[in-house]
Every structure is written in structure tokens, then in C-alpha cells.
Amino acid sequence: MLLRRLLLPLALAFGLVGTSACAATAPDALPLPTELAPLAPATVQSRVDQTVASLLSQYHYRKLKIDDALSVKVFDAYLEALDFSRSFFLAGDIDEFERYRTVLDDELRNGRLSAAFDIFNRYQQRLLERTTRIREQLARPFNFKVDESIELDRKKAPWAGDVAELDEIWRKRLKHEALTLMLAGKDEAAARDTLRRRYEGRLRRAAQTSPEDVFQVYMNAVTGVFDPHTGYLSPRSSENFNIQMRLSLEGIGAVLRLEDEETVVVELVPGGPADLSKAIKPKDRIVGVAQGDDGPMVDVVGWRLDDVVDLIRGQRGSVVRLQVVPAQAPAGSGGSAVRLVRNKIQLEEQAAKSQIRTFQRDGSERRVGVITIPTFYIDFAAAQRGDPDYRSTTRDVRRLLAELDRQKVDGVVIDLRQNGGGSLQEAVELTGLFITEGPVVQVRDAKGKVSIESDPDPTVAYNGALAVLVDRFSASASEIFAGAMQDYGRAVVVGEQTYGKGTVQTLIELGRFLPQVKEKLGQLKLTIAKFYRINGSSTQHRGVIPDLQLPAAFAADEVGESSQPHALPWDEIAPTRYRVAGKVAEYVPDMARMHEARVRQDAAYQELKADLDYSRQLRKQTTVSLLESKRRAEYEANKNRIRGRDGRARLDPDSEDDGSERKDGPDPFLDETAQVLLDYIQLRGMPRVAVR
């Protein structure tokens, strides 16, 4: 009961949310610092440190002990957070830090932060020294006629033994970054000037670092060891998080995260400017931000996430331009400018929508209805007011099903691609449209207690043939619905293995534990439970594996819970009692055979599959040539391959248009899912069944 009183509940079915460290943006006009003053923890941070450690050990779903083993993981995570590419610290620094490797657990329990701040202050010193040497290196032209290469992935590389070795690492890194800018259209002088301003800006921002910034980076190294969805939010980050959850931000409608010095799109808010543009996708990288139609593009590589967010936010109706590098693009792509108009997210833009796709089979026309659900939504305010016409996913889908029935469709596809989750209540109620009453999902808390969310309504809105289309970005509530449809045998699940986000978070206001402290103390986002399907299998880590799999855009180690360090593992509990509604599994072998025979003859499908395979192979190549002639040839070959695909949305990493007119082309995977559904109808001999 204590935990229940102290926690601020969140919706059980969270989507994917990123957090950030914060610091005020430093104008380029500020003088370049010649020294960085050492930072020390504030007294209150020691108390927050102890409080967070206590909450983690008592209430986190993963019952980790705060001991030497945890200290080792925190130590490594903190070093990676500060210097992921091993480009600032020297091997001697790491040797000196080794004395902290197994004592961070003691520091946590006792509220000591000396180790964290000692390591950070050394990082600041190395950053200052390195910036001086970077400026010297950028003052000289590069020789792009030398046939040499660079290994971009340095996460497991040995630390440089001395300054000379680090100089060579940076010579190649700067040469690679200059060449990337040149491929995007700059000449060498402009590229070197951009890099000089990039790294000078980083130093200026470092000079504005506060103890709270250091504390947040360190505490997230601690919380991240428990699982990737647990995190400490500083007072400023708490404000940003709460704005995002209320969807009251006037911006572009995207959840962002900092990865390897670049701002990465984690999730698009359905109906937001970024989503509606069709030019930005999850895993895309934002490398520049410009204000208005004529403002200069500001290079934001290496910026802190809150600084980038501050640039992207602005007045409703104003224009922001983003330099975006698609996730599919190989190393060295400069990206393209995407023009967006800032706006609030409207519920109407998030709503489920329907269409009908027609196919010729055996000399007759077949019609398949498609309902696309961008998120699981409910207008809580209208519902609480007693508005009889309040909007929700389930209400809208029920209406769309009735409309599709009037148009005499043969079956329905529920498209959940890129649906990152939303309301658990809506996932349960939506399931109820297609089954009689019964359990939908099990939830096990940290104490092992299992509760069941069920559909109590015995009526069924639609009895006809059903398919569910998912991809790697279908997460949380999407996985609950897709898993339930699969377990009940109610629908054919088609697509990619889903994200695997099967955990439940809550927010703890840290000020409640330190009532004598008057200043704001931020929040702890804590994982407290896991979701399990009614068959007993967790959706965590593994996600939902479709009955029939389509080619994946990303490998499991690139996107999804399985790509996250310290993610909670998959496991299973006892299944609950439920009555199977259909026998889809019996028809899967025949559907797979029919699918393979058909797609072998489908040129659009095979082209898309080849492009996805090609993109994955490019992303695996972490060694890049620094010979300009070779790099340009590879770059042009890749552009020509991508632009040569007509009749569908292209994955062009360097399009010259502004992205505002980009439209989706044909959708081979959606069409194939509809064909699979028609196969299922044919195999079962199912008549068209009316909506009830």
C-alpha cells in the first residue's frame, strides 16, 4: 500500500519514450573557454542519490542487489555515456578510474558522488584539450587522395595510449566528417569551417554544464542498468516529459533520443507535423535545424538533446526546417531538408482511418477493408465530462467496421505498423470487438502477483475474416492486441517481429520522499510490472512473432527491445483460461506456400525486399573509405539505386526537395497482407460475415 500511495500512476501501456540531459544552448558569439572549472555535487543531490538507490532496490521489477556486480555495470555505462566512441579519455585515465569500478555501490548507498564528479571533471579537461587540437587539425587541408579508411564503431576499441595516438584517431574522424559534408554539397573550406564551429560549440556548451547535468548523466547510468525504460528525470526533463505526455507541445510531434552524438527519432506522434510529412521515420537522424524558410541550417551533431529540442520548438504556425538523414541511409549520407510547420497534436489526426483495396482473383473482384490505427487513444477529458460522443480507438473502429460492412468487404486488415502503443484500456476493448468475453492480457507485478485485464462484453462487433499487420515499431498496446488476436486464433498476424516492449512504468515524484526540501527534485520513471499474453508468454523482449513473416527493414539487434542493453528478458508464466475462437494455425503452412508462390512473381514486392536487404548490408559496414573518388562513386551508386525505384516511396538519403510534398507510393506489404487474408478465406471457404 505504501508504494501505491507514493507513486504517480501512468497509463500501463506506455509507448516508446526518450529522456535527455539538459543545459542551456550556448550562442556561438560567446568567447571560446580557455578553462573549465571543476564541478561539485550539490548537497541535495546526495540525498536524491540515496533515495533513487533505495527505490530501485525496493520496487523495481528486476530485483537487482546494489553490490559490486552492479557497480561494475554502472561504471562501464557511465564511461560509455560520457565517451561512447573512446575519443577523449586516454588509457591512463581509465587505469586511474579503475579504483572506482567496484565501489560505486557503496557510494550509492551512502549518497556519495565524488567518483561520478571526478570522472566527469576529467572528461571536461580532456574535452578542452582535444578541442584545441581539433582546431589545429582543421586549420590544415585534408588529403583526400590517400587510399585509407576509418572504422566508425569504436565502442569496443582499445583506449588510446597517448595523445599522438588520439590525434591520429581524430585526424581520420575529422577527415570522414569533412568528406560527409562535402558529399552533401559543401566545399572543403566550408566543411572544415562547419566542423570547427561544431566542436567549438560543444566546448561552449560544456562550459555551461551544471552539477544537475552531471547528476542526471550519472543517475541514468545507474537506472539504465536495471532496464532501458527506467530513468531519472531532472526537474527540467520532468517538465519536458510531462509536456510530451499531455501532447501539449507545439512542435513537430516526435519523441527524440541522443544516440552516439546524434539526435535520433524514437517515435512519431500520430497526427503530428513530422508524421503527416511522410518524410521522417523512426530511427532517422536529425543533424541540422533551421528557423523559418530562410534561416541558416544549424549543425546540431554533438549537441545535448534538450538544446536540440529547444531549437525545434517554437510558435504554433511557424516553420522549422530539419536536416534529416534516413535510417536506411549508409554512412556518409548528408541527408535532406524537411520543412515542417509547428502545431499542436490534434486527436482527429491520430484517429483510426479506413480504406478499401481491390484485387482480381479467379476472374472476380475481391474487396479488403483496411483500418489503420496509428495509436491507442481515448479522449479522457470528454469521457470524464460524460460526453456521449467522446472519441476512442474502439469507438472509431466499431464505426469503421460498420462502414466497411455496408461496402461489402470480404475481410478486414488491422494495420498497426509504427503504432507505438497508448491506452491499455483501448487495447483490451478493441480486442473485445472481435471476441466474446474473455481475458486479453496478464500483468505480473514485482511481487509476483498476477492480474488479468479482460473484455467483459459478450457481444462481437465483427465475425468476419481478419488479419493484423505489424512491424518492428509496433509496440506495447499494439503487441497486446496482436498477441491476443493470435492466441484466440481470431486473426492471421502478418509482418515483422514486433518491438518487444512488454513492461509497465510509473512515475515517482522524488519530492515526496524529501518533503523538507523545497526545491523541485525531479522524478524517477520506474519499471514495476510486465505484460504476459493469455497463453503465458511475455511480450517483453520477444514481442509478437507473426504467423507469416514479411521482410524486415531492421534486424533484431538494430531496433527493438532486444537491441537495448539490460532489457528485461523474455519469460513465461502459467496461461490463463480462455476459449479459442478460430483455428488460424491449421492454415498457416498452406498460406505460407501460397504467399511464397505469389511474391516470387510480384516485382514491387521483390524490389522492396531487395532494397531492405541492401540497406541492412550497408548499415553493417562500419569501415568507410576516406578516398574521395571512391567515396563519391559509392555515394552516387547508392543514390542511383534508390532513385531508380519508381512507383513507391523512395528511401532517398539526399533528396533535393524539402520533403513537404513527399507522398506514400504503393504499399506492397499491405497488399500482400490483404492477399494472405484472401488466401485464408479461400482455404476456409468462409462466407462474408456481417458486422453485428
From TrEMBL:
Bias (Basic and acidic residues) ranges: 637-653
Annotated spans, Disordered: 637-671
Alphabetical keyword list: Hydrolase, Protease, Serine protease, Signal
Recorded GO CC terms: outer membrane-bounded periplasmic space
Gene3D superfamilies in alphabetical order: 2-enoyl-CoA Hydratase, Chain A, domain 1, 2.30.42.10
Organism, scientific name: Plasticicumulans lactativorans
Taxonomy, superkingdom: Bacteria
Stretch forming the signal peptide: 1-23
GO biological process assignments: proteolysis; signal transduction
Family: Belongs to the peptidase S41A family.
GO molecular function (one): serine-type peptidase activity
Start and end residues of each PDZ domain: 242-319
Protein name as annotated: Carboxyl-terminal processing protease
Pfam family, one: TSP_NTD
